[in-house]
Amino acid sequence: MDYQTGPADSNASQSASLYNSRFATRLSKGTLALILAGGQGTRLLDLTRWNAKPAVPFGGKFRIVDFALSNCINSGIRRIGVLTQYKAHSLIRHIQKGWGFLRGEFDEYIELLPAQQRIECSWYKGTADAVYQNLDIINNHHPAYILVLAADHVYKMDYGPLLAQHVENNADLTIACIEIPIASASAFGVMQVGPDNEILAFAEKPSCPDPIPGKAQLAMASMGIYVFNTAFLVEQLKQDAALGDISSHDFGKDIIPKLLRQSRVFAYPFRQGQNGLLARCRHH
Q1: What is the domain class of 10-275 according to CATH?
Q2: Cβ contact 245:197 at 8 Å
Q3: Nearest to 173 by CA among 142, 199, 196, 203
Q4: Rounded distance, CA 140 to CA 237, Å?
Q5: Cα-Cα-Cα-Cα dihedral of 73, 75, 79, 84, to 10°?
Q6: 52 and 88 in contact (C-beta within 8 Å)?
Q7: Taking the mean position of all CA atoms in its chain, how far away is CA 243?
Q8: pTM of the model
Q9: How do beta strands 145-150 and 109-114 pair?
Q10: Are the CB atoms for 162 and 174 separated by under 8 Å?
Q11: What is the pLDDT of residues 207-242, one digit of tens each?
Q12: Hey, CA dihedral for 36, 33, 117, 253, is it positive or negative?
């Protein structure tokens, strides 16, 4: 029997789209975004001699960090922490002057979280340690989900569908990923993904990256964008911190590879048609 798409099918599709939009919006409101903005960016040479990499100007008055911040705002995520460390004065000043429009009475904010030795007598040792050293602040906000972002990526993305997939998969961790030429993959975390997007293997900056099955010239790379259930993340960070010098306290090197053996870890494919990629994401 032949079926034709009629008004009823169109209305059903619109209803499903509306439901997904509302579902993602509800999840966004329960999410705290943590933007890691402490990078030195030595490969930019003089551009980062006196500024952190996220504070490098982009398109006139804007800074690289504005991509992550605008993605959050446009995704309905208005509870944001920016973790700073290296030569952060210009970055802090830019955020204070350019992003002061959020309304605290509506529980909207961008908090600046400089390295201040809240837990240990040391600066941030790695990406995971940066979050760990701010656990008391994170717990005070009581988020259901933590979205971890890098402040030095240039891209446009709606985080709502990412959060929705995370919840629908009953995942502990979801990692946004993108297909890149395998010749460039050694600078990224490279993963192997199953048919249901569950991550089967993960290697941080491998010297010989594994290609995507059936696509010998491409690798599946992490974008450094992570969604965690908050309670799960807190437990993993505490375990990692207890390892001391055995761990480098980095999400890609330490946290993620361990989780593949014991937790539900999924990939979220970043697609240009869905998200409007502006420039190739670089995860340094």
Answers
A1: alpha beta
A2: no
A3: 199
A4: 17
A5: -70
A6: yes
A7: 24
A8: 0.84
A9: unpaired
A10: yes
A11: 999 999 999 999 999 999 999 999 999 999 999 999
A12: negative
